[in-house]
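Holo prediction — magnesium ion.
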Amino acid sequence: MSLLEVKDLQVSVDEREILHGLSLTVNLGEIHAIMGPNGSGKSTLSHVIAGKPGYEVTGGEILFKGEDLLEMSPDERAVKGVFLAFQYPVEIPGVTTINFLRTALNAQRKARGESEFLVPDFLKKMRSVASSLNIPMDMLKRGVNVGFSGGEKKRNEILQMALFEPSLCILDEMDSGLDIDALRVAADGVNALRSPDRAMVVITHYQRLLNYIVPDVVHVMSKGRVVKSGGKELALELEASGYAQFEDAA
Amino acid sequence: MAAVQETVDRVRRIDVDQYRYGFETLIESDKAPKGLSEDTVRFISAKKNEPAWMLEWRLEAYRRWLTMTEPKWARVNYPKIDYQDLYYYAAPKAKKTVSSLDEIDPEILKTYEKLGIPLREVEVLEGVVRPEGEEGSGQRKIAVDAVFDSVSVATTFQKELKKAGVIFMPISEAIREHPELVKKYLGSVVPTSDNYFATLNSAVFSDGSFVYVPPGVRCPMELSTYFRINERNTGQFERTLIIADKGAYVSYLEGCTAPQRDENQLHAAVVELVTLDDAEIKYSTVQNWYPGNSEGVGGIYNFVTKRGDCRGNNSKISWTQVETGSAITWKYPSCILRGDNSRGEFYSVAISNGHQQVDSGTKMIHLGKNTTSRIISKGIAAGVSQNTYRGLVTAHRKATGARNFTACDSLLIGDKCGAHTVPYVEAKNSSALFEHEATTSKISEDVLFYCVQRGLTQEEAVGLVVNGFVKDVLQQLPMEFAVEAQKLISISLEGSVG
Ligand SMILES: Nc1ncnc2c1ncn2[C@@H]1O[C@H](COP(=O)(O)OP(=O)(O)O)[C@@H](O)[C@H]1O
Ligand SMILES: [Mg+2]
C-alpha cells in the first residue's frame, strides 16, 4: 500500500479550476520533488493535502495510508502524520515557541491516545533536537516566528518536523529566501529525517535545493497537472532547458 | 473565510450555554421584602446591627438616589430595570454567628468547593503548572473572604493576618469594630452622590470586604474575595474598602460567579482604594458572572464603580481585570493621582461573546506633579457581541510633568461583532505628555490554519492565539490567577468545557 495516493484531483478556488486532474503516488521511504513554474499549482496541492479551508475539491480523491484524507479535518490529518512545512510560516505574537511546540506535540499525542509529555521530558527532547539544528534556546523563548529571520523561520519548521515525527513531510519552497549557508543547515536537518518509515514531498522552483536533498523521483508540474515524471536527472535536464518546453505539453 | 466562519459557528453553538458555574445551591435564605424604600434600607442596617451614623449615611444616599436618573451614555442596551421588583437583601439562614468553617452550612462550603475556592485553611495551591513550561512554583497562601448573596460567610487566615496587624474582615464587621477607620475612608473616594449605581449601592450595600494595612507593613499573603450570587431576583451590592497606610503594600484578588438563570440579575458594587505616602495596592479581578444563554436571555448586569485614590506621594495603584462574564458590563476602574509622583496602572482583558455587551475602560486623573499612568487594554469580541473601550486621561493645571501611555488593542472573531475605542484626553498644562496607540485586527485564518496543521483543534487554536494576544495583561496577575484566567478565556471563547 502506498503512503499517499492522489488520484485525478480536481480543485477549484472561487469557481476557477486550478488543479485539472492531478495524480501522484508516494511510497514510504521515498523522496519526491515537485518542480514547476510559479502559478503551476504546487502550493495549492500542498494546501489541499493538508486540508486548508477555501479550496473546493470537485473531483478525484486522496488516500493516506489507505484512508480517505479528504474526509478528515486538518488537525486529524496532522495527528495521522501529515506535516506541511509552510512557504511563509506565520507569526503568533505572545505565544512562545516552546509553549507552542509543547501544546501542539501534546495535542497530537493526546489525540492518538498516547501519554502527554511532562515539562522536563519535553524540554529534554526539545533541547536535543534544537541543538542538532543550531537553534539557540533564546530563539525558542520568543513568540512563534516573531522577529525570526527567513532562515530561522525555516529551521523552526524543520524543528517541528523533527519533534512531531510525521510520516509524510511536505516542504513548500523551503529554499525561498535562504542564502546558501542557511540552505545547507536546513537541508542537513531534512536529510537527518530521511527514514524508511517516512516519505517527503519537496516542492521547489529551483533545481539548487535538490543538490542538497537528493530526490528519488522528480515530477514536473505545469498549469495544474503533472506533465512529466522521472529520476533525479530530470531536475538537471530542467535546469539546462527551462520550463518552457512543458508549457505546451500542459 | 471558511475556517473563521467555522469557528464562529462553533462558538455560537456551544459557548455560553455551557457556563460552568451555572449550578444553584439549595439553601434556605432570609430575605428582605421585595422592593426598595426607606424601610428596606432600615431593614438591611438593622440586620447588620449597624450604629446610627451608618443608617443615616445610607438614608442620605437613598434620598439622593431618588433624585437621580440612570446613566445612558454607555454603548449598552437593556430593558428598563424595575427597581421595585428586586430583593435587596438575601442571606443564607445562618446559625447565628460563624466562628469557624465547621459552622457554615455544608451546602455553601460545597458550592465554594465546586468553584475551586480554598475556604479550608490549607495550602491548596500545590502543583500549579507554570505556563510556558517554566519550572518551579512555591506554595503560597491566600486568605479568602467569601460573599454569598448579601453576606460574608467566611474569612480565612484571620489570625495570621492579625499578627501582621492587617485587618481583613467583612465590611459589616468593620463598621462595628473599626468605626473610626470606616468613617474616615468610606465614601471618601466614591462619594455617595457619585453616580446612579454607586448611590444605590451606598444605600443598600449588604456586605463586602474591608482591608486595612498599617504603616510599613507588607501584607504577608494575597487577600481574596469570592462573590457568588445565588438567590433569584436578588441584586448584589457589595462594598469593598481597602486602605494601604504609609509604606504599606497589599495585593488583592476578586473573583465572581453566579448561577445560570433566565432573568437578569443586577450587580452594582463599589470598590474604594486608598494609598497613603509610598503605599501600593494591586487589585486583580477575574469576573465570570453568568453571561446569559446563546439567545441573550438572562445574565448579570454588572454596573460597578471602582476607584482608587493615590492620596499620598509616591503611592501606586494598579488595576488588573479579566472580564469574561456578565450580560452587560459597565465598569471603569480608575485612579486619582493626587500625590506627587504617584502612579496608576490599568491592565484589562475584556471578552465578549454571544449577546454580551461590554463597555469598560478606565480614568486616570492626574492631579499631582510628575504623576504617571499606564493603560493596556485588550478587547476580544466574538459572536454578535459589542465591546467598547472607554477611557479618560486628564491632567490638571498643576499636574506638571504628567505622563500617560495608553495601548488599546481589539481582536475580532467573526464579522457580526463590534469593537469600539472611545478615548478622551484632556491636558490642562503644556508639560503633560500623553501617548495613545490603538489597533483592531481580525483573528487571522492563516494563523489558525498553521495551528491546526500542527494538530491543535480549531478551538484550541483560537484559545492559543487569544492567550497570546492577552499575554501582557495576564502577566500582571498573580500566578494562580493567571492560570485560571487563561483557562477561563479559552472556555469563554471555545466552549470546550474543561
Ligand atoms: N486562494 C486563492 N484564490 C485565488 N486564486 C488562487 C488562490 N490560491 C492560488 N490561486 C491561483 O492558483 C494558481 C496556482 O497557485 P499556486 O498553487 O500558489 O502555485 P505555485 O505554488 O505553483 O506557485 C495561481 O494562478 C494562483 O493565482
Ligand atoms: Mg507556491
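READOUT: Residues A 42-43, 87, 173 surround magnesium ion (ligand 2) (CB under 6 Å).
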